[in-house]
Amino acid sequence: MFTETINHAGGISTGTASEEHARYLLRRGVARGADVEATPTGGARISWTASSLTAGGGPVRISRSIELTPQMPVRLLTETIRADLSFIEAAPASQYRMEHDRRVIEGDLYRIPPFATARLRARGLVVEEKGRVRLSLSAQLGLLAHRHRTTTSQPSAWYRSVEPYGSAGLNRPGRRAGLLYSPASTALCACGELSACGGDRGEARRLATAHRRAATAAFVTAELGARTP
Hints:
Layout: E1 2-8, E2 11-17, H1 19-31, E3 35-38, E4 44-53, E5 59-70, H2 79-90, E6 95-99, E7 102-106, E8 111-112, H3 114-122, E9 126-129, E10 132-135, H4 137-147, E11 150-152, E12 157-160, E13 179-182, E14 185-189, E15 195-198, H5 201-223
Antiparallel strand pairs: 1-2, 1-5, 3-4, 4-5, 6-7, 7-8, 9-10, 11-14, 12-13, 14-15
């Protein structure tokens, strides 16, 4: 279950969304071109801009959003838990099996022992559906956010020009004579698919945000079957 917070024309309203409804909201968001982004807690943010009119009749763009916050946050995903979730994610035939009166999760090529199985169930990371064990939506979103952790570097700052002559950087105070300033910042993602340089740190952060949103949209399309409702 998720807490659904909607920022709309009438203000902000809060309600409860089932996993099925949360999936629908994500599919609809992607189908309609909204920005969607998974959060480390296992939730998601859907945002877009809407057109409206000012009191004087002029057009204005207004930000709108839907926040999906899991009622049982994912919390810390250790390396062991991530490995177990990845096994289940890759094996659609995963199922529960009783072993000495305790549940274990078993797939074609792996077995998750009783204690680890109980931990996944207690944290709401797995659910049983039609006799099969799968990741909950919050586990999928939390794992996605972990795989796409982004960072931006401090600006490159002062550097010495490769040009041996010229007046660039001359007469600068603080022993910076002959130096030039670069505000450039690099955006990186843990997935290895993002390594981009921004003109400044603000641009680098925008590149990182765009990457996370693209990754979330790709997940929704591939795993949740995004389509126009």
